[in-house]
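Dissemination and training. As part of the outreach component of the grant, students in the summer workshop were shown how a complex can be specified as a set of sequence lines and then modelled as a single object. The example used during the hands-on session is reproduced here so that future cohorts can follow it. Participants entered these lines:
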Amino acid sequence: MPELPIGEAVEKFTQFLQDHLGGAFDVFAAVLMKLVGAVYTVLVAPHPLLLIAVFAALAWLAGRRVPLVVFTVLAFLLVASMRLWVQTMQTLAVVLVAAVIAVAIGVPLGVWAARSSRVSMVIRPVLDFMQTLPVFVYLIPAVFLFGIGVVPGVVATTAFAVPPAVRLTQLGIRQVDAEVVEAAVAFGSRPWQVLREVQLPLALPSIMAGINQVIMMALSMVVIAGMVGAQGLGSVVVQSVTQLDIGKGFEGGLAVVILAIYLDRLTSAAGARDLTRGRARRRAARSDAPARHDRVRESVTTA
Amino acid sequence: MTGESPREGTVIEAKGLTKVYGMPRDKAVSALRQADERRRDAIREAGGFLAVDDVGFSVSAGEIFVIMGLSGSGKSTVLRMLNRLVEPTSGSLRIDGADLAALPQDELRRLRNRKINMVFQHFALLPHRTVRENAAYGLKVRQTPVKERMERADWALRRVGLEQWADSYPHELSGGMKQRVGLARALATDAEILLMDEPFSALDPLIRRDMQELLLQLQSEDRRTIVFVTHDLNEAMRIGDRIMVMRDGRVVQCATANEIVSAPADDYVTEFVADVDRSRVLTAGNVLRPPLVTARCGESPAEVLNRLENVEMNGIFVLDEAGRILGVATDEALAGALRDGGATIESCLAGDYHAVSPDTPIVEFCDMAGRHTVPIAVVDADRRLLGVAPRAAILAALAAPKKVRHA
Ligand SMILES: Nc1ncnc2c1ncn2[C@@H]1O[C@H](COP(=O)(O)OP(=O)(O)O)[C@@H](O)[C@H]1O
Ligand SMILES: [Mg+2]
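and obtained this result:
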């Protein structure tokens, strides 16, 4: 059996990147740092109670369901009272930045893959690889290229969260009724019009499910990112593990769970709402609907 | 066959249309160079599928041209080549004389938007848009101002009887109503040509009838050129001016409903035709025979009676110089006139007969057959006798052709 020095090659490649593109990585790291910093600043600037009110309002807008609003208020009050507010906001900032980047990369890639089976064929094994690679492995090159801190955390988190965005976007667009797409083309639409007016809106539930998964992936990664020095709930958990502090660890974990449930319900409610657009209208129309139906029937038979 | 030579006012002219799926075009074209019988296999061996094979037809302005055949016979593929939703592998296609294959993309989109619209089997409405917005879709693509676009959509919805539903969403509508929106979407753009791919196949029989009537009514108001795909021969006969029957990607017969029923080209068509109500499709013209004997005014009763005896008939049409029917003379009346002596044939005339025009469906007169001493007379607009429709000929025509068993 010949020995293939794959590990060595990857190492050399990473070294090569650092030697020749080190400057670019530094700039990238600085931008990313600024971005996370900005989001973090916005999150911790207002009083926690004010921000909790904003979270509750978002929950209401997304699903118009009272239980979610009640949960939001109670859960984040709990976070604040555990004195984990700052760390939670640090984590949220990383998750938001990573998720936005992952969506910004993943959705267009998904669209591209949906429109070309060749692209899809290339992307698929890459996604499989990315999703099955143990998450820790992402951290090593990230740390190597960006050093310790929040940046490798965001990078590793993003890399980890991209695949579901690509997959579910591609799936959503492929699942759009071919006849409806055909109709748009048959009436003279340009490809981008078909995409914007038919494929993306009809794939929206699937894309939203993808975004939901991106956020969940990002959140699960962010704890691990704590190991490379990213501030936040991750580092709380990591510290309590090294100090065998059961209580602290549990509190950190609970805050992660709360954040996860909130973000999950928020995004899935927003995704589901688009499916039932026009529901209110239908309810309003229901009372006189049968009568109108009859009228149509009549005009049919007299035609 | 009427379908194969270009005619006055030809809007669509297709020649040698061929479509191979699942193969690069140049490979397919070279495989198609095979002799007729072998090309199908040659394509299959090369991993492709010959869905449409050398189809030619022409459609004239204002005509409803029906493409009929079993599922998989290539109907939808032919239809989609007419607006290049499917690119032909080979063959030529002219719309109003312009070569469709030569159109650049933006011209093609313009043509689809303004000239050729389409109605789909499963309606293909945008679920996230209201009925009005759906009806206005073509105009939106055309970038018509919103107000004008909505007015036009409302006008189109009124024509299909859906004006009260303009603000609803498609999922709130029944199937028939959804297809009305599909029709309105095409009406709103004012396209001259309408492609319809089994538009009513997904509907209940009763609703399907309503929709066929609606289509015929719309067609009588402003004549469009319609290419209509169906697998239902009764539907084809009801609405089609001409019908092209397809089998395995080839044209089996292209003719009027009447021609198809009275002279099916082969067993495949015969089997289709077996389920048709023949008495509604076949007309007096199909059972027209020359009369065995006729009499002229001025002839002597003796001579005419003699002629009747030779053919063993009981009555005879008496015609004037122009061939118009003056009346019927029965053998009894003639014999009476002979006894009286000197009486003319005019004195024997009676109105005991039934006359129809050649395009009268058999269903409208078959119960009159055999009621008189003479067969049913088939006359032109001036009541000139063209021939007769004997009872035996009517019965023979109505009897379904024997189903031929396939090996
Ligand atoms: N995109 C495609 N790729 C491969 N084969 C196709 C494609 N579209 C249609 N076919 C095949 O071509 C044949 C004719 O299809 P179609 O034109 O849809 O027939 P019809 O409308 O009469 O049912 C069928 O056997 C079908 O399986
Ligand atoms: Mg079809």
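Chain B touches chain A through 42 residues (CB under 8 Å). Students were then asked to discuss how this feature might be tested experimentally.
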